[in-house]
């Protein structure tokens, strides 16, 4: 028993020291429902949590990749959690997300982790709050980025967890945008129109703007930002808007 609590103490100490392998183990324990978070000393949140959500393929991972660049240039450390909405059998999204953020994998100030949403209906990983608590505990990561596919309920969940919510859309997603409309307007702090290199981008932005205008008077201002994630365009603007919201 005494040995057990000593082991635990050592584990938390290594976790706190910023050891990334220990962080990875800790997250896996939480994912597998091992209730070790309970004894974690409660503390003020250290990390700011930023959620990126949107339909499949709109460019969330590419945008996050460019955003990580900008964050690193401003001297901040970043942990990224990519949530695969589908079954554990689909490794595809994991690989895609990893590939798009590949250039940051060797940077010790960037931690990228894929999580499975398993059978959890919300679209987020079931124990996401505890995983964020673990990352907070290390006091090593200034920013935690969450990537989730907008799947109805996940927008609502991300809203509870993230300090800033970015809904990513892109031209040519008209139908999906209609379906997402209610969710978008409810949770978005910022709307990013990605793939702004496509000709219909300004039309999409206009459409979003008129959707926002349908809200009741006094609704909060939601910036619409045009980005070309694959060419690093609009990223400064995005970073500044996020910072303005957080600080
Ligand atoms: N033309 C253009 N293509 C882009 C842009 N950003 C991303 N893409 C491309 O869009 C495709 C999807 O990008 P991802 O970043 O994987 O999109 P995602 O939203 O993370 O996709 P999932 O994780 O599968 O939901 C890739 O082929 C990107 O290269 C952009 O600004 N312009
Ligand atoms: Mg992705």
Provide tags for this entry.
247 residues, 9 helices, alpha/beta, Rossmann fold, binds magnesium ion, elongated
Overview of the structural elements:
It contains nine helices and seven strands. The chain is α/β, with parallel strands linked by helices. The chain has a seven-stranded parallel sheet, sandwiched between helices. The structure holds guanosine-5'-triphosphate and magnesium ion. Guanosine-5'-triphosphate is lined by residues 54, 56-62, 93, 96-97, 100, 149, 194-195, 197, 228-230.
Low-pLDDT parts are: 87-92
Number of strands: 7
Approximate shape: elongated
The CATH C-level class name: Alpha Beta
What's the rounded overall pLDDT mean?
Answer: 84
Distance N to C terminus: 45 Å
Percentage of residues in strands: 15-25%
Which class do the helix and strand fractions yield?
Answer: alpha/beta
CATH topology category name: Rossmann fold
Please tell me the CATH architecture by its name: 3-Layer(aba) Sandwich
In N-to-C order, the SSE pattern is HHEHEHEHEHEHEHEH
How much helix is in the residues?
40-55%
Strand order of the largest sheet: 3-2-4-1-5-6-7
Q: What's the alpha carbon Rg, rounded to whole Å? A: 18 Å
The structural domain count equals 1
The unique ligands bound to this protein are: guanosine-5'-triphosphate, magnesium ion
Tally of helical segments: 9
The description of the largest β-sheet is:
7 strands, parallel
CATH superfamily: P-loop containing nucleotide triphosphate hydrolases
